[in-house]
Design brief:
Distance between the termini: 50 Å
CATH architecture of the largest domain: 3-Layer(aba) Sandwich
Number of helices: 17
Strand order of the largest sheet: 2-8-7-6-5-3-4
Mean pLDDT: 91
CATH superfamily of the largest domain: Type I PLP-dependent aspartate aminotransferase-like (Major domain)
Largest sheet: 7 strands, mixed
Low-confidence stretches: 477-483, 485-509
CATH class of the largest domain: Alpha Beta
Bound molecules: pyridoxal-5'-phosphate
Number of strands: 16
Radius of gyration: 24 Å
Shape: globular
CATH topology of the largest domain: Aspartate Aminotransferase, domain 2
Strand content: 5-15%
Helix content: 40-55%
Oligomer: single chain
C-alpha cells in the first residue's frame, strides 16, 4: 500500500468529525506549551469526552488492588493487602487458563465472568433470568456494538441497512455506522422535554427513510449521551412497541446505568420492561443491551471491556457474533477481570467494603453536584440554555449564536458551534464537544463532561463563561431577551474575568 488511492474507499469515506480536528489541535497546543510557547492559559482542559480518569477522577482501589495481585501473583502473600482483595484475585486467577492474565480467553470472554454478569443482571432486573450463553464480552462497548452492526450491514443504496439513531447521539456513533457500512437514520429527540424520546419522531424518521435504505435497527442511548435524559417505563414501552411492529432490532446502550441522579428518576433496563410486557413482545422483540467498564462508578475506559446481552436472538446469528469476536482472538483479560469486579463489588462486612462505598459515593455525588452546578451557571449566560441532566456524564447546552457568527462560520466553511469551540480552545485552552446538529434546525449545542473533580469544574466554568461573554459581546450588543439578570440585578457582562451568576460567584482562576 503506497498511496491514499490504495486505501479502502469505504474507510476513506468515514467522516472525520469536527471533534477529531479539535482534538488534534488540543494535542498540538499541549505540545506547544511543553515546548515553552506563551499562552493565555497554563494547560489545555479537555471535557469533550467522558474519560473521567483523564480528567483526574481516581480509580476504585479494590479494582486496582485485585488487578495488581492478578498481574503479580506474589502479592497473594502480601498481608498488607486486604484479605478479600487477595481471595478475589486468587479466584479470578483460577478462572484464567494457566492461572495467568497473560493467557487468551474464549472469544466471548471468560465463562466465570460471564456467569457473574448474569447474576448481576438478574439482581438488577429483580429476578428476570439471564443466561451466560447470551453474554458476549468484548474490548469495549464500542467494539461489541460494531460487531452487531456489521452483522446487520448489507445491501447498497435503497436496500442498504439503516439504523435509527437519535439526534443528538454519542459523538462516536456516526463514524462507527459509517465504518460498518450502514445508513444512519436520525430521529430527533425532544429538547424542550429534556431530550425525551418522541415516538412520533421515531415513526416519522422511519417513514422518511423508506426508499432511502432498509431500516433494521433502532439505537437508543439510555441514560442519554450527550443529553442526560433518562427514559421512564412508559417511554421504554413505547419504543419496544415500535420495534415490535416494525420488526426492528433494539440496540440499547445502557453504559450509564449506574449514574442516574435526577430527582425521582431511576434507571430501568429495557430488558426488565420487555419482560413485564405481554408475551407477544417478550418472546419476539430482539434486543441487545450494552454495558461497559467505562461507566461512571469505575471509569476504567482504558482497560477496554464491555459486554452485551442478547435477547430473543436467533442462535444461528449468535454463532456469528462469536465468529466475529474470534477475529479479536480475546478481549484483554485485565479488562474482563475488572468487569467482574465492577459488577460484583465488595459486600457489607468485607474488609474493602467501606473504602469501596466511600470512593464510589464520592464519584456519584461529585457528578450529581457538578451537573446541577454547571447547569445553573450555563443557564445564567446570555445565548445559552441547558436542559437539566438526569443521568450520564454530559451536559448538552444550546447555543443561540448571533447571525454575525453564523455568517463568519459560513465564510470559513465550518459550523458556527465548531467556530465557537475553535476560538474557545485557542483563547482559553478549553476543549468541549461540538459539531452535531442536535436540536431544532439552525440551533447549535456544546457537549461537556461534568465527571471531573470539583476544582476542575470551577476552572472549566470560569474559562467557558469568560470566553462566552467576550465572544457574545464581541459579536453584538446584549439587548432584550439576551440579557439575563442575577438576583442582585447585575447584568452579566463580558468585561474582565469576573462573573456573577444567580447562584454563585466565580473569580478568575
Ligand atoms: C453511550 C456510550 N456508549 C459507549 C461508550 C464507549 O464505551 P466503551 O469504552 O466500553 O467502548 C461510551 C463512552 O464512554 C458512551 O458514552
Amino acid at each position: 500500500m503506497t498511496s491514499i488511492q490504495n486505501v479502502n474507499p469505504r474507510v476513506r469515506a468515514i467522516r472525520v468529525s469536527a471533534q477529531t480536528v479539535l482534538q488534534s489541535r488540543a494535542e498540538q497546543i499541549t505540545q506547544e506549551i511543553i515546548q515553552g510557547a506563551q499562552k493565555p492559559f497554563e494547560d489545555v482542559i479537555d471535557v469533550s469526552s467522558g474519560d473521567s480518569h483523564r480528567a483526574g477522577m481516581k480509580p476504585v482501589s479494590f479494582i486496582r488492588q485485585v488487578l495488581a495481585v492478578c498481574l503479580h501473583p506474589e502479592l497473594l502473600e502480601d498481608h498488607s493487602l486486604p484479605l478479600d482483595v487477595r481471595l478475589r484475585a486468587q479466584r479470578l486467577l483460577q478462572a484464567c487458563d494457566g492461572e495467568s492474565v497473560g493467557s487468551y480467553t474464549a472469544s466471548s470472554g471468560l465463562l466465570h465472568v460471564r456467569q457473574n454478569i448474569t447474576e448481576f443482571i438478574t439482581q438488577r432486573d429483580a429476578g428476570v433470568p439471564a443466561n451466560s450463553n447470551n453474554i458476549f464480552i468484548a474490548a469495549g462497548t464500542q467494539r461489541a456494538l460494531m460487531v452487531v452492526v456489521k452483522l446487520l450491514s448489507r445491501g447498497e443504496g435503497q436496500s442498504q441497512t439503516g439504523v435509527l439513531t437519535p439526534l443528538p447521539c454519542p459523538h462516536t456513533l456516526p463514524a462507527l455506522l459509517d465504518e460498518a457500512g450502514v445508513t444512519a437514520v436520525p430521529y430527533q429527540l425532544a429538547e424542550e422535554q429534556g431530550w425525551a424520546v418522541d415516538v412520533k419522531e421515531l415513526r416519522q424518521a422511519l417513514r422518511a427513510s423508506r426508499g432511502r435504505c432498509e431500516p433494521r435497527a433502532i439505537y437508543i442511548s439510555n441514560p442519554g449521551n450527550p443529553t442526560g435524559h433518562v427514559q421512564d417505563r412508559k417511554s421504554i414501552q413505547e419504543v419496544i412497541q415500535v420495534a415490535a411492529t416494525e420488526r426492528l432490532l433494539l440496540l440499547v446502550d445502557e453504559v450509564y446505568q449506574d449514574s442516574v441522579y435526577g430527582p425521582n428518576t431511576q434507571f430501568v433496563s429495557y430488558k426488565k420492561i420487555l419482560f413485564e410486557m405481554d408475551q407477544e413482545f417478550r418472546d419476539t422483540v430482539e434486543l441487545v443491551s450494552f454495558h461497559s467498564l467505562s461507566c461512571v462508578s469505575v471509569g476504567e475506559c482504558g482497560l477496554r471491556a464491555g459486554y452485551m446481552e442478547t435477547i430473543n436472538m436467533d442462535p444461528d446469528v449468535m454463532h456469528f457474533v462469536d465468529t466475529m469476536l474470534c477475529t479479536d482472538i480475546s478481549t484483554p483479560v485485565t479488562g474482563q477481570l475488572a468487569l467482574d469486579l465492577m459488577l460484583n463489588p465488595p459486600k457489607r462486612g468485607d474488609p474493602s467494603y467501606d473504602t469501596y462505598i466511600q470512593e464510589t459515593l464520592f464519584t456519584w455525588t461529585t457528578l450529581s453536584h457538578n451537573a446541577q452546578r454547571a447547569a445553573e451557571v450555563l443557564n445564567a449566560l446570555p445565548g445559552m440554555s441547558c436542559q437539566p441532566a438526569m443521568g450520564g456524564v454530559y451536559l448538552y447546552p444550546r447555543l443561540d449564536l448571533p447571525a454575525m457568527v453564523r455568517r463568519q462560520a459560513g465564510m470559513q466553511e465550518v459550523e458556527a458551534d465548531v467556530l465557537y469551540c475553535q476560538k474557545l480552545l485557542e483563547e482559553e485552552g478549553l476543549l468541549v464537544g461540538a459539531g452535531q446538529q442536535g436540536g431544532a434546525a439552525g440551533s447549535h449545542h456544546l457537549r461537556l463532561s461534568v465527571l471531573v473533580p470539583p476544582d476542575m469544574l470551577e476552572k472549566v466554568l470560569s474559562r467557558l463563561c469568560s470566553f462566552h461573554l467576550r465572544f457574545m459581546n464581541g459579536h453584538r450588543s446584549l439587548t432584550g431577551k439576551d440579557q439575563k439578570e442575577n438576583p442582585d440585578g447585575v447584568v452579566i457582562s463580558g468585561e474582565g474575568k469576573t462573573f456573577s451568576s444567580s447562584v454563585h460567584r466565580m473569580e478568575d482562576v
